[in-house]
């Protein structure tokens, strides 16, 4: 596994990094590879940024073990070894830079192992499951692939109650499904379809239609249905913003607004997710971040009696 990991992101396994070096390694990986511009937002307290980068690095590396090896059986085996590396964070001496840093984050915030194990389980699922019959099956996947990230994020800020976890789950699930809609073409190259087959059957859109990248009235109606349902899930998750305090509100809202903008982009592009991947430009990200920040500051600075739809 070490040779594979070195090929993904170079490091010297014979020379275990010091803790600060490991945190720097994770920060560099996060800044280089993250797509969601809210990761490590400039408004997140400085002392928490290294830990957010470290959690992201764990997710990024796990994801790459699942997607970048090119062999499902080998990926599954590597993820098994990766899981053992995770266990070393809770009772051993990890040597991999991500786990050297993660062990400090786990200790600092008393993080349980379950969310990290769930994430690895999701990447293992990708090696053996490539179709989802209905929404419940897809939500089960999201429960492992996305929701643990939101729960870890909340725990980094001191929140551990089920009410907030449930709302965070909604946001993360909506973001994951948005990513599926965004990456339909990319997932097809991996032999995967994340749109529930039950939904496709309802709109008379077949797997062969999808593989042929056919954009017809059935596909448009299917996409409208998926987008509207995802918006409803985002709507539930946005309630979390009012149930947390401080600058973490901004990051949570930015995640949701960014996902909602992707859905708008898909609609604006006439649902063509095959010829151009729906993404936000740097300008659009800047506008979104600026507007959300202004609303955040308005809520903080204005007297409650003057706040309407800030």
Tell me briefly what this model is.
This protein has helices spanning 2-8, 19-33, 49-67, 72-88, 97-109, 114-128, 135-145, 147-156, 162-182, 184-189, 197-202, 207-211, 217-237, 248-268, 282-301. With 310 residues, it is an all-alpha fold.
Notes on the protein architecture:
The chain is mainly α. The chain has two domains: 15-128, Farnesyl Diphosphate Synthase (Orthogonal Bundle), CATH 1.10.600.10; 130-310, Farnesyl Diphosphate Synthase (Orthogonal Bundle), CATH 1.10.600. Helix content is 67%, strand content 0%. It contains 15 helices and no strands. It has helices at 2-8, 19-33, 49-67, 72-88, 97-109, 114-128, 135-145, 147-156, 162-182, 184-189, 197-202, 207-211, 217-237, 248-268, 282-301. Helix 8 (147-156) crosses helix 9 (162-182). The longest helix is centred in the middle third of the chain and has 21 residues, at 162-182. The chain is globular and about 55 Å long.
What proportion of the residues form beta strands (DSSP E)?
A: under 5%
Which percent range fits the helix content?
Answer: 55-70%
Segments where pLDDT lies below 50 for 5+ residues? 36-40, 281-299, 301-310
Q: What is the first-to-last residue Cα distance?
A: 50 Å
Q: Provide the CATH topology of the largest domain.
A: Farnesyl Diphosphate Synthase
Mean pLDDT: 85
Instruction: Please identify the top-level CATH class of the largest domain.
Output: Mainly Alpha
- CATH-defined superfamily of the largest domain: Farnesyl Diphosphate Synthase
Gyration radius over CA: 20 Å
Count of DSSP strands: 0
CATH architecture of the largest domain: Orthogonal Bundle
- Give the oligomer, counting copies of the same chain as homo and different chains as hetero: single chain
Largest sheet, in brief, is: none
């Amino acid at each position: 596994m070490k040779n594979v990991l070195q090929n993904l992101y170079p490091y010297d396994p014979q020379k275990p990094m010091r803790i600060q070096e490991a945190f720097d390694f994770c920060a560099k990986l996060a800044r280089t590879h993250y797509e969601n511009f809210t990761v490590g937002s400039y408004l997140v307290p400085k002392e928490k940024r290294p830990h957010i980068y470290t959690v992201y690095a764990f997710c990024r590396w796990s994801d790459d073990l699942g997607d970048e090896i090119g062999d499902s059986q080998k990926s599954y085996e590597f993820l098994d070894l990766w899981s053992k590396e995770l266990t070393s964070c809770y009772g051993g001496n990890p040597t991999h830079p991500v786990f050297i840093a993660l062990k400090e984050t786990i200790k600092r915030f008393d993080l349980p192992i379950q969310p990290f194990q769930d994430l690895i389980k999701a990447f293992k699922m990708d090696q053996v499951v490539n179709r989802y019959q209905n929404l419940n099956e897809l939500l089960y996947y999201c429960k492992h692939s996305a929701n643990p990230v939101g729960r870890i994020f909340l725990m980094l800020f001191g929140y551990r109650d089920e009410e907030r976890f449930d709302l965070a789950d909604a946001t993360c699930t909506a973001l994951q499904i948005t990513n599926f809609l965004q990456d339909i073409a990319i997932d097809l190259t991996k032999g995967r379809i994340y749109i529930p087959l039950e939904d496709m059957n309802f709109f008379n859109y077949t797997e062969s239609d999808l593989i042929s990248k056919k954009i017809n009235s059935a596909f448009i109606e299917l996409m409208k249905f998926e987008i509207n349902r995802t918006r409803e899930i985002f709507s539930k998750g946005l309630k979390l913003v009012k149930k947390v305090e401080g600058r973490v509100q901004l990051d949570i809202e930015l995640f949701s607004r960014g996902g909602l903008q992707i859905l708008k982009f898909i609609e604006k592009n006439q649902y063509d997710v095959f010829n151009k991947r729906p993404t936000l430009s740097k300008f659009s990200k800047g506008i979104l971040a600026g507007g959300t920040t202004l609303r955040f500051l308005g809520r903080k600075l204005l007297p409650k009696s003057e706040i309407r739809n800030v």
